[in-house]
Amino acid sequence: MEYLIHLAILFAIYAILGISLNLVVGYTGLLSITQAAFYGIGAYTTALLLTQVGVNFFLSIILGIIIAAIISFFIGLVLNKFSGDYYALGSFGFNVIVFSILLNWRGLTRGALGIAGIPKPEIFGIHFSSNFTFLIIALLSLGIVYIVARFIVHSSFGRVLKAIREDEKAIQVFGYNTLYYKLAIFVISAGMAAISGSLFASYITYVDPSTFTLIESVFILAVIILGGLANLEGSILGALFLVLLPEILRFVGLPFDTAAQMRQIIYGVIIILLMLYRPKGLLGEYKL
Amino acid sequence: MFSQLILNSIIAGAIYTLVALGFNLIYGATKFFNLTHGVLAAVGGYSVFFFSKTLGWNIYFAVVLGIVFAGLIGYGLDKFVYLPLRRKKASNMILLVASLGAMTAIQAIIAILFTSQFRTLPLNTGTQRIYEIFGGVITETQLVILVVGIIIMATLALILKYSMFGKAIKAISDDEEVARIVGINTDKIIGYVFFIGSAIAGLAGILIGFDIGIQPTMGLGLLLKGVIASIIGGIGNVYGGVIGAFLLGFVENFGIWKISGEWKDAIAFVLLIIFLIFRPRGIMNKQ
Amino acid sequence: MTIIETKKLTKKFDGVKAVNNLSLQIEEGKITGIIGPNGSGKTTLINLLTGVIPIESGTVIIEGTEKLVKIKPSQISFYGITRTFQDIRLFEQMTVLDNILVVLTERHVLKALFERHKNYHLKHAGEVLRKVDLWDKRNQFAAELSYGQRKLLEIGRALAMKAKIYFFDEPFAGLFPEMVKIISTIMNELKRENKSIILIEHNIGLIRQLSDYVFVMDEGEILAEGISTKVLEKKEVIGAYLGD
Fold it and tell me: Do residues A69 and A224 touch, judged by C-beta distance below 8 A?
């Protein structure tokens, strides 16, 4: 049972990441491969604020969102100058830069040593010390992110995002300043990813840069492609699959230390198969 | 100190050149960013490790096998993944994502087969000779890297310029559709391009293995440098890749002169982003 | 009155002058045709006037008041300009209804975020779609429509803008007579409402039938201009088409 709760928490974290990235990739058509950077910014903000300054966890989530939003604003400004595969490369670059900073700015982040001893959340005297209570926070966060994402997708703004994805020049001709729209969704997406990071930090109680690499960004991309681009429920499904897969592997009898690599192989192969045979993914309405 | 920096820059440039050459060749022919390219260096390095250390075969033989094996993997990827996608008129983004998948999978396969431990490739001579040039130091292996880099650059340049094969590649680069219409078997030529480009990448991995060592994740770093070198030099332009590679080598090494070496990657990427903003066509390509 | 005027408009591609020092005036409330052989610069001209490609040199004057040397595509709707594309640029993986709704709803980023399409949007979209006979297909993806239906949707999208100035780039290409009739009717209706239409077409018969005034382009310049019947008889015009 404890184990199921653990899986459920991880699921919630990845579902939020998936939804956040889908808004940018699936709905707006921007091939962003840098989500791990904002995931990491959220995680480190919470880690630092909780261990160094003693800030409340929930406040740290908000601050994490703000910091990720500010950083993503500037990254988004630069990325807006690119399109298609150049956008992907540029975003790659930013992931590397952010990772480099997390790894090398030891004065702030303690580099490869990471930050340990991150406490569990508490508010108004309630300690969320058990995994079960943490799960509630995680699921609530997922719920909020999902509702916000749905709201965005069904608004006029959401429709414009899809038009940008289909033909950016064409929608511009009809009076839309697409740069603002792209920037806005990129920032919103980064803020959501930061929430996942905060959850991750407090749950695992330890963060280090190795979680927030390019490969992680590729995983998140795989989640949403598998679940289906431009489909929020699909991202949730994809996250479920991501979390259950290692368990299935372990069930089948693979030794633990290769489970992570096996997962990577399976993800790589799944991406290739999806591109070849079903670019829409499971529930998606859009293919790249 | 200064001359050491220059030597280091040149050596780095030579390695990046090897990676950029293959990457550019493939981009020129297919117009997509083949992100699997870097991991093929690891394939090269690890296959030499396998043949020489695990199987105990002659090192030179192992090197040749390693290069060929890397080339074959690249060729296989084209045949089974990229070509079918191109036939379906897949967009560049789909190809890029597929190459990401391949990169992820291959890197993990290597890690499972050989563990993530850092390995070195054995050399024939027990100790290496070290040369002193203008006050800087360079090992024999590094000298070999430089020489090999230059030879491959020159050979490739000659092939591209003067052979029928090279002309076919240029035709495909300019317009694949037209090349096909005039009777060039574009699928076959592109297959060869993948083989050659990947083999060169494998060679780069092998040389690094001799110089520093190999690790399953080495491909990613090399890929990133190769991409940066190609873009700043002029994507698709083989000579541009060379210029970009050396420029990158210099900027990286001089850039970390005053600050810690760990920022190399970040510096490289800042350089990339600057070029993407101001001169996305690169140094050699016309605007 | 002159609704659009260009002065010495120029655009080069790789050294070739696609539009060469072009100066012309377009009358309000009329249907102005632009014809010419392939490569004469018609579409480039429209692209320049609608901000799709940047102006190299020259000026564009709108309604006598706005003098522009640079046009951003997102600006043109504020000047009452809209267009269709020769190569049909619809939002393929969106529904027919969404293709229309998206040009009706709020443009401002923040306001658009908090807006769900209202009834008046739907009503307006309904009117437009019924006019182009696509209301029944409103929930299908644009990509699923037939060629003729896609052309009609392009026009519908432009109509929805309730613009003052319409640029139609080869709207009749490849259409069956029934659809040609629908579009011609729409254009004449717009003209009755005193809207201005600029029409690129290859079909000389349609040009003769629809347009009041015609510009003939060749190699980036104006070869001839005038009332359609007169212009189409000119030797130079026929020569340009036959490739003298």
Answer: no
